[in-house]
Structures are given as structure tokens and as C-alpha cells.
Amino acid sequence: xxxxxxxxxxxxxxxxxxxxxxxCMSMSxxxxxxxxxxTIQEQKAETTISxxxxxxxxxxxxxxxxxxxxxxxxxxxxxxxxxxxxxFDALKQIRIPNLRWPGGCFADEYHWMDGIGQxxxxxxxxxxxxxxxxxxxxxxxxxxxxxxxxxxPYVCGNVGSGTVEEMSKWVEYMNSPNExxxxxxxxxxxxxxxxxxxxxxxxxxxxxxxxNFTAEDYATAYRRYQTFCRNYNGxxxxxxxxxxxxxxxxxxxxxxxxxxPADMMWGLSLHYYTIPGPWxxxxxxxxxxxxxxxxxxxxxxxIEDAIVKQDSVMNIYDPEKKVAMVVDEWGTWFDVEPxxxxxxxxxxxxxxxxxxxxxxxxxxxxxxxxxxMANLAQVxxxxxxxxxxxxxxxxxxxxxxxxxxxxVHQDARLIPTTVETATITDGQWxxxxxxASASVDADGxxxxxxxxxxxxxxxxxxxxxxxxxxxxxxxxxLTAKNxxxxxxxxxxxxxxxSTFDKATIKKGxxxxxxxxxxxxxxxxx
Length: 525
Ligand code: AHR
Prior knowledge:
- This protein has an 8-stranded parallel β-barrel, surrounded by 5 helices.
- By secondary structure, the chain is of the alpha/beta class.
- The N and C termini lie far apart (about 55 Å).
- It is built from 11 helices and 27 strands.
- Helix content is about 25%, strand content about 25%.
- The chain binds alpha-L-arabinofuranose.
- The site of alpha-L-arabinofuranose has 11 residues, from loops.
């Protein structure tokens, strides 16, 4: 039922995306082919790119939690207190700053008390394949895992089918150091000290699977629910309100911003999926045409338009940008892999996905003044996953490598950039060939990340910089022979990171030629 409801909104998103891309086409068709000039203004590096832009999302959906993150302590698969060691190590490597849990739509039918203690109640996961959920992965398992990973938990509370009391007690159970029935229960369950949950969402997609609220009703419910989500131990709980159904639903955003003051709402959510086809036939993740590729890029690029427009509504009520835009679900959404459960959203991940990740993260960086948190959907085995598992095997996807390259931007200061780029065309689509962002970190190292979106054309990039800069470490390159290339359990390194030695600095400019369909990271000081 949920999927039927969502259908129209996702299709609306796609329709608008196409319309916007066509407008874009007529404006940019004159650019010079195969070259790009990136102008950076390092003296204007003021805004911090929050590391939380590089967050991930783990839902009780398909094999994200079970078999993906969690195998249990008794598994033969090497694990750290039940968490797969291979996945744990891979996530450590990309320094995931936060992890969202337990959903998604699942969050609004999740009752946290079923997932603590020795005896766990089972339930049916009605959103995702009607799978039986045994609740063996619950609050303790999630928060202990986050602690060991050194990542901040981002917990999503149940507004749709839960009570204010249930939500309030969950926050108390997790964060309170005081003596109370909830903290006693936590101690009985083996955890003496509170965890430090910093991010807490008051519901998910409350316009739809989270309760079918109107904007007005949700604003009222939000104010009430959040009141009883207390700050414990001198901490400050960063509460996130549910966002609009589609980026063009300005009424939702305006109502929330108007009715909920900034001291009750740290952030406002926005979900943006790249779905290059109608809901019933979104297209294969691996078997796609050049036209499909262009359509995917066009739609992915339109996230910038969504951010700008949503930001302009937020600015009416919050010109100082106190309230963060939290893009807590983003990524590609294709048809599931043939033969897999349609409710489990398992899809492969190609060089096309890597380019979507690269351009999206560049866009987030460039809007870091408002976008202060984001979560790729989802971390393992679901949608645009960074990791896929199969029994004891694990594979890192091309998207994983983009997160590995881009981690240098975490908490660095954004360097404003302007990109003058050639365009690339296929059929009705004309798109900018190059997309980029830059930052400078606390040690004065400048990082540039650039994506060449052309499936078949190199790009000569020219970036005027001060002659004092030097390339200080090996630059990184991610590319592939074909846009459909991906990593499999049999062939896990088809698409991999390599060093890039084509960049040089001469006569006050950094120049390099990027291969077609590639992402490059360059480090300078
Ligand atoms: O990520 C899959 C689903 O997409 C989430 O559960 C829901 O919030 C969104 O519609």
C-alpha cells in the first residue's frame, strides 16, 4: 500500500526533473566542448562543510541490517559483537560520521521496547516485503555498534504509530544518566552508562508512510512530541522534523518553518531519490542505455534545484540559516536485481552510481551553509549501497570509492568555485560535462573533487591557482571502461580507485585531462 501511495509523488518528481533539464539544455548548449575552467576563491573559504553530509542510512529493510551489518555473535562470519568485521572495517575506512536508524518507513511502525532485553517480540515488517522481524538487532546493538565505529547515531522516532510517552522514554533510556525506571531497565540490559545520541528525527516521511499527516497536523504533533524528547547530561538533542513529499511541496516546508521555532527544530528533512523511469519500471541498475544514463544524470543534477528552492522557502523564516537542511535519504533507485525480493530493494551499483554520488556530494558541499547533514540510502544491500554482501563475501561498490575519495572534505571549509564547462548531449538531454567542489582543511590542505559526467569524452580541466600551491600527495582517480561496469562477488575490483598522475601546475594554473566517466580528487598545499 505504501508503494502505491508513493508512486504518484515519485513520478511527479521525475516529471519536474525532466522539465527542468530541458530548460537547462537550451541555456547551456553554447559551452565549449571537452574543456572546463574551475575558478576557486580560496580567500572566501568561510563555511564549514559538516562531516555529517557524509552520513549513511541503515533501515530494517531487506538485508541491510540482517546479513548486511549484523550477523550475530554466534555467526561463523567474523564479527565484532555481532557486527560483520569486514563491513565494520570498510565503514571505518570511509569515516562514516553518522548512521541513521531504524528507518525510513520502518521507523513509524517500530516499537523500541520490542528490541531490548532477553525476550524480543517479533513483528511483521509491513513496509518491506512483509518479512518477519525478530528484533534481534535493537537499541543496544545499534548504539554499541555506532560507539565502536566512532559514528554518531541518528535515531528516527515513531510518530505514526507510537505515543509521545514511548518516544520520550526511548530518549531517556538512551541518554539519561539519572536514576529512573528507564535507566534501571537499561542497566539491567547490560548498559550502565548512557549513550550519547545527538541526532533524533521526530518521525519519517510523515506526509505518507509516517502517518499521512497534513503539514498543519504534523507541525502540531511535532511540537508536542519533541517537547518530551529531553536533553540529558548537559547534551543537546538535535531534533529533525520530517520534510515535504516532493521538493516542489513548498506548502509543507513553509508550514513547518512558520509553525515550529528554530529552538524546537535543529533540522528539516528532505528526501531526494534519482529514479530514471516510471515507478513500475525504474530501469535496470546495470543494463541501461546511454539515454538512460543521461536521464539519470539529469535527474541527479536537479537535486541542486531542489535544494535552492527549498532553501529559499526556509530563508523566509530563517534567513540566518539556523535550521539545517537534512537530506537524510538520497541516492539512485532502480528495479531490484532479477530474482530478488521486490520488497528488499537490492540493486547493483555501477560507474553511473559513482557519478551520481560524486555530483551530489559536490552539490551538498557547495550548499554547506544550509545542507548540514545527509544520508545516502542505504549503507549495505539496499538501493545505492556502498557495500554489498553475500554470505561471507563482501564487495565495495563504485559509490563506496567516491565516499573514500571525498572524506577529505569532512569538516573542511568550503572554497567557493565557479565551473565554466562544456556541455554533453544525447537526444533531448544536454548537461554540464563537469561538476566540482573544493575545500581547505584545518592543516591548510586544499582538496578539489571533480566529476566528468561524459560517458565517452575526456575533459581538459584548467584551474587558475596561486603559483605557491603544490600537489602534495597522489591524486586519486575512479573510472571504468564502461558506464555499466560494476563490482561483483566474483570480480570485486572491476571498478577501483587508482592514482592519477596527470595533474600539473604551470604558469599559475592546475591543469589535467580527465578520462570520460571519471571522478578525480586532487590534494594541494
Ligand atoms: O529508503 C527506502 C524508503 O524510501 C524509506 O523507508 C522511506 O523513508 C523512503 O520513501
